[in-house]
Amino acid sequence: MSHRKFEHPRHxxxxxxxKKRAKRHCGKVKTFPKDDATAKCHLTAFMGYKAxxxxxxxxxxxxxxxLHKKESCEAVTLIETPAMIVVGMVGYVKTPxxxxxxxxxWAEHLNDEVRRRFYKNWYKSKKKAFxxxxxxYEEGKAAIEKDLELIxxxxxxxxxxxxxxxxxxKGLKQKxxxxxxxxxxxxxVPAKVDFGYGLFEKQVPVDAVFAKDEMIDVIGVTRGHGFxxxxxxxxxxxxxRKTHRGLRKVACIGAWHPARVPYTxxxxxxxxxxxxxxxxxKIYKVGKAGTDTYGAATEFDQTTKDxxxxxxxxxxxxxxxxxxxxxxxxxxxKKRCVTLRRTLLAQTSRNAVEExxxxxxxxxxxxxxxxFQSYDEKLKFYGKTK
Length: 386
Fold this sequence. Notes:
Elements: E1 42-43, E2 45-59, E3 71-80, E4 84-95, E5 98-106, H1 112-115, H2 131-138, H3 142-154, E6 157-163, E7 179-185, H4 189-198, E8 203-204, E9 215-221, E10 224-228, H5 230-234, E11 269-272, E12 275-287, E13 323-327, E14 337-342, H6 350-353, E15 358-361, H7 375-382
Antiparallel strand pairs: 1-7, 2-3, 2-14, 2-15, 3-13, 4-5, 4-6, 4-8, 6-7, 9-12, 9-14, 10-11, 12-13
């Protein structure tokens, strides 16, 4: 066998194969947090829409660190999270092959936002979805209660079918709601069923699921870049300038035998629009619409200003609903639907337990060189115009 003269680590991770387009453009929760029967019943996930990014200033609180009591500038992402509506419940039983759904119970009234999800062409359809199912409630709820009793008796886990209120996000032109199954954790199975049934047709706000300073996981689909070559897709080195027939290539794609190209060799293909889960993202702020703390004012910067930057978030618009401010970036472009999940791990690190106190939130324009934090500041600088 041949040998190489110098060590050469491979380019690109094989842990993310196959690098293909995601089947869905919403993040799918593949693992929910471990259930704790001693806790109160609670939901474990939520959905929101990526609005855009800005930056904040804060004092770091890490005794012993060189950054302790020093000012830090950090990037944050704003995710608009209008309240979700619970419209159904699914009970799962354990089998040797994993979980299997036993019964699905739906609410009596489903609005048009979610009923659109069951049609390819809404305006040409007869709009009859769930009209027959609603008669079960008119006939005395006996069939519904029977299904609920079956779930209580046989099921090991209970998940609620929830949908977003996509029409409340004025930055989106979509009318069809996104749906998600959210696992109920805490309590025994009958308590979970009663908890879920009590939420039917009700709105669940984001602050009922997440809190400030909590560590969460973000699940979504990355920004798509189409068909790309090996240099961009895998990060391999370019060949020398004088190379015949192009230099953005892999020089040797394998030995003569075995007479196949190994899967470990970098090849061209789809780049981006991959399903990804990013863990340990810290919530810096939970914005509740209609409250005093909704805006971008802080204890140190008392300026009355909206959380939306001047001119709106680029390619999104204005925040009008509840929102989460999350440290760092979030996968996907603006307007992309992202799934937020409670952490799977016991969070004990200093980053996880640190209390965040924001000093300043930047609201200058994100389109060009933002000079002013608010329209009042701009007016004071320029004075009265004609």
